[in-house]
Write a structure and sequence with these properties.
With about 475 residues, the chain is an alpha+beta fold. It has twelve helices and 21 strands.
């Protein structure tokens, strides 16, 4: 709003300056008065009178006529010189007591996830940064933490919803009084106040009503009646004994990648067997001293990682990858270790394995395996990798053909150790033997390189002294 002073200008008079001076005298702290003239009248605008002006005053002098123009015309004439600033403030009925728990950033390659489960219930006390829910993504499970210490007032999302970073999941009350108030009063107050927050609450309330009807409860088309069978013929269990469970995002991601691997790569597997006598003897003799010095147990996996590093250095094509019409050779070796968890298969990566010794490899494997099993492993710890080792032997697998982990070009499969009779120096003896398998992309890797690589694994594991002598 502006205060506008208009009057008729008398030829030769100095009334315009009088009005301007009188105004400056009454408001010494204001800025200089601006004068606008148009056909026999002067409009005096003072910047200091912009604000909450409830009336417009017209000052005239005796003997002068008043020429009033509509206010809209005056305002249009002032627009080129005046900028009006509008400030708005969103109304909030919680007075800062309520805070929102939102889904955090989930990674560069992850745009959304599924709200898997709530770890707390409405009314529970939570501390700052305490997890209250878990979001399942294609790769990892991410916690939704409480931004403040307080009481969970309500959940605004439900399990199974697809959420994005920034999606509000719960409302936390920082004071017990705010949490004790029922959520119904909060919704009533929100409806009575014309605020964007209230509109959001009103719009979010009906959503659960629409989505509460499970898909599985919809009537299914009647199946044709089963054919008549004799009493001695086995019958399938009835339909009411079946359970339908939604596939997790991690399982769907694993299924998609494995199927893409089969559709893209020319998969071929070659096998060999390894005598584990010397490596197991080495482990048995030095396991106590190794544990005492390094604080971690000496396992067999570190020996196979070192053997794989040696094989990849001798056959660099195994560590390469196809990219369009080009072949990318990697001058580093990042070994991915396949780990089976209750939620699915994850593949953490040991970075720069060629620079690590046995102790460093065992420590890294132990750390990554613990994170994978308790669900705290990050996406960065699983990204990349140039070669994968999968140990199905821990579950008792005797022989298998592993599938390549895209976009890598090969994967080594380890299996269980079984005592079998073999011929050594013309004599039949019992030795702990393990079958090993290498699945490779035949578009890039020929059988010659694949067999040489697997043969190098066999030589190093059967005689670990080769690693010291580099032969």
């Amino acid at each position: 709003m502006f205060g506008v002073f208009r009057r008729k200008v008398v030829s030769g008079s100095s009334s315009a300056s009088i009005v301007g001076k009188s105004w400056r005298a009454s408001r010494p702290v204001a800025s200089t008065t601006t004068c606008f003239a148009s056909e026999g009248e002067v409009v005096l605008l003072h910047p200091g009178i912009s604000g909450n002006v409830r009336s417009i005053c017209h000052l005239t002098q005796p003997g002068a006529t008043v020429n009033l123009k509509p206010l809209r015309e005056v305002m249009i004439s002032l627009q080129p010189c005046v900028s009006v600033q509008m400030q708005t403030r969103t109304f909030s009925s919680n007075s800062g007591d309520l805070v929102d728990a939102v889904v955090p950033f989930m990674g560069e390659s992850i745009s959304d996830g599924t709200l898997a489960t709530f770890l707390k219930k409405p009314g529970d006390r939570v501390e700052i940064d305490e997890p209250i829910a878990q979001v399942e993504t294609d790769k990892v499970t991410i916690d939704v933490a409480s931004p403040e210490a307080g009481i969970i007032q309500e959940f605004v999302a439900k399990e199974g919803d697809t959420v994005e970073p920034g999606t509000k999941v719960a409302i936390i009350s920082k004071s017990a009084e705010g949490a004790a108030a029922p959520s119904k009063s909060a919704s009533t107050e929100a409806v009575s106040q014309p605020s964007p927050t209230a509109v959001e609450k009103v719009e979010e309330k009906p959503k659960p009503k629409v989505e509460t009807t499970p898909v599985i409860e919809k009537p299914k088309p009647a199946s044709p009646p089963p054919p008549k069978t004799s009493a001695s013929e086995p019958q399938l269990p009835p339909k009411d004994r079946e359970r339908r469970v939604p596939m997790t995002r991690l399982r769907k991601r694993v299924a998609t990648r494995l199927k893409d691997s089969q559709n893209t790569f020319a998969l071929l597997t070659t096998f060999n067997e390894v005598d584990m006598t010397n490596l197991m003897k080495l482990r048995s003799e030095y396991k106590d001293a190794f544990l005492e010095k390094h604080g971690v147990k000496l396992g067999l996996m570190s020996g196979f990682v070192k053997a794989a590093v040696s094989g990849l250095q001798n056959q660099p094509i195994i560590n390469a990858v196809i990219d369009g019409d080009d072949i990318i050779y990697r001058d580093y070796i990042d070994i991915s270790i396949a780990v089976g968890t209750p939620k699915g298969l994850v593949v953490p990566v040991i970075r720069n394995a060629e620079k690590m010794n046995f102790a460093e490899i065992e420590k890294e494997i132990n750390t990554l395996a613990k994170k994978a099993n308790n669900g705290t492993i990050s996406i960065d710890e699983m990204a990349g990798g140039s070669f994968t080792i999968s140990n199905g032997g821990v579950y008792g697998s005797l022989l298998s053909t592993p599938i390549i982990n895209p976009p890598q070009s090969a994967i080594l499969g380890m299996h269980s150790i079984v005592n079998r009779p073999i011929v050594v120096g013309g004599d039949i003896v019992s030795r702990p033997m393990m079958y090993i398998a290498l699945t490779y992309d035949h578009r890039l890797i020929d059988g010659r390189e694949a067999v040489f690589f697997l043969r190098r694994i066999k030589d190093v594991v059967e005689d670990p002294r080769r690693l010291l002598l580099d032969i």
